[in-house]
Amino acid sequence: MSNLLALLVLFGFLALASEQIGRAAKRMRLPVISGFLLAGILAGPYVLGMLTAEQTLQLRVIDELALAFIAFAAGAELQYRELRKQLRRIWWITLGIVATSYALVVPAFLWTMDAAPFLEGMGSRSRLAVGLIAGAILVSRSPSSLMALVSELRARGPFTRLLMGVTVALDVVVIMLFAVSSSVADVLLRASDFRAGLVLLVAGELLVAALVGIAVGAAVQVVLRLGRWLPVQSGAVLFIGLGVYAASAWIRDATLVSAPFQVFLEPLLVCMVAGFVVGNFSDYRGDFQRVLKASAPFVYLGFFTLAGASLDLGALRHAWRVALLLLVLRLVAIVVGTYLGGVASGAPPNVRRLTWLGMLTQAGIGLGLAKEVAVDFPEWGGAFATTMIAVIVVNQIFGPPPAKWLLRRVGEARSDLAGGTLGAPRALVFGLDGQSWALARQLADHGWRPAIVSRREIPNDRPSDIELLRIDGLSAEALRKIGADKARTLIALMSEEANIELCRLAHDELGVSNVVARVATPEGATLCQQYSATAIDPKVALVNVLDHFVRSPALTGMVVGMDVDRDIVEIEVSNPELEGAALRELQLPLDVLVLSVERRGASLISHGYTRLEHRDRVTVMGTLSSLNQVAARLTA
């Protein structure tokens, strides 16, 4: 134990150096994990020798903590409510990628991988086992990388949702595929005969792992409910994940000695099910996401640094041709699989042709599975893991640029559009009446770039101070022609039926998240809210305004614009220097009050210690001159 503690202290110092190298990689516009991997390689046994190969194996506890965390995050990211509208398309594209990957990779290991050092002396059964495991690993993707791109580009729309759905689904599927492939490979490598009992055993292991995952999810909820201090919650969740690995190893060893067959409950699958349960069927989804977000920098730092130190550079020198072949096979599998899946699901031609560009990145899950192989199959797993890690690193470096180009190509990236606080955000008001003109003028007075959209003939005597656009009908194509998909906000002041249709198109086709619709019935309000729109009944709104005028006249007067000296505005954080800065550190004017912080669609209860992130939306109240100062500070 004392030797392990000393080793952990040494690794802690290496991790501090790795963090600095990761920051340098980020400044060079490379993935941060590339810097972590490089630091690990430098500290490993093949360069500086600060860590020996035996010591990297002794640090297995770091791997297990990180892998449990990665599986928790993968399960939590699978939000079935958000994916169900494109479930058929996601299913077929996922199936296409999986089937094509196995169809290309497994034969390659059987017949064309003679240059791979880890296959020397293996028969066809053993090669088939290795090919099954490799096929599972190459299916993996990187939801975190794609989510970072989506956040950077502020991408929204059906194509973005499809990419996210397939990416998350693949990371979930790959864990189940790896569990099955590992069990089958174990039988093949032990030269045992296939029996019907093997199929039942594997199916039973998956079922028991899922049930245990539900129980682990309940335990995580207990931790989140009882603990309120974030470091304690994070430590407890990681400890639960480590306990899953320890229990899995104990069951495997115990059944090997005392049972007629060995039982292996894949800990990755257990943790993934637990994350899915907490993220979809509990009241602690927000707490769980905060724990995962707070733990991620430390977990990834340790995991990728250790992965770099574990790389067998000698094996990689002999297996670079194999790594290159696997890169090509994976690319072909993605291109063919997405196209076939698109055809089977009836997807439009552009989805069939372009989806593969967003499917190239790899990171945590793939690396974790490769290191699992190194532990489970020590005879050849180390060299195999090194080859797979090389493939994953190349995909992680060169995968994001095509995905970024794709999101811009389909028109769902909004970072380049006029939508920032200081860049005259665009608002389209649908409907031609007195309220439309009054609202458009007020928006223009507050720095917006409004336009009124009408399906009727534009009158000749219309006022010239507001832009007026003519539209023939409510369709996705017609709305794109007038730039509705690039607007910050759509306001529906037409008939209730037309307003509901606009809400549907904005949500399903255009990807515009902020839609305000005027309704006259509770049924209309319910339909609009189903499409994530804000529904306003003028009669109810008037009663509420009068009520607030009675109970809080000063604030209500400011909200409705009667206090001309003060205002309430929402400002999007785009100043890179404020990443991670606490609100109390901003030194805002004394007459400014921060009302709320919105992050990725969720409202935070803000206080002085709330730390800002890029693209946060901060709602502030104060005098006009002070609000201008705050806007300049947050947007730079």
Précis, in short:
The chain has 636 residues and is an alpha/beta fold. The chain contains 25 helices and ten strands.
SSE map:
Elements: H1 2-27, H2 32-43, H3 53-58, H4 60-77, H5 80-83, H6 87-111, H7 124-139, H8 143-153, H9 158-189, H10 196-226, H11 230-258, H12 267-280, H13 285-310, H14 313-345, H15 349-354, H16 364-376, H17 381-398, H18 400-409, E1 426-430, H19 434-445, E2 449-454, E3 467-470, H20 476-481, E4 489-492, H21 496-510, E5 514-518, H22 522-530, E6 534-536, H23 538-551, H24 553-559, E7 566-572, E8 593-599, E9 602-604, E10 617-623, H25 624-635
Parallel strand pairs: 1-2, 1-4, 2-3, 4-5, 5-6
Antiparallel strand pairs: 7-10, 8-9, 8-10
Helix pairs in contact: 1-2, 2-13, 4-9, 4-11, 4-12, 4-13, 4-16, 6-7, 6-9, 6-14, 7-9, 7-16, 8-9, 8-18, 9-10, 10-11, 10-12, 11-12, 11-13, 14-17, 16-17, 23-24
- Strand tally is 10
Number of domains: 3
| Helix fraction bin | 55-70%
- For the biggest β-sheet, the strand order reads 3-2-1-4-5-6
Round the Cα radius of gyration to an integer and report it. Answer: 28 Å
Tally the helices: what do you get? Answer: 25
Ends distance: 51 Å
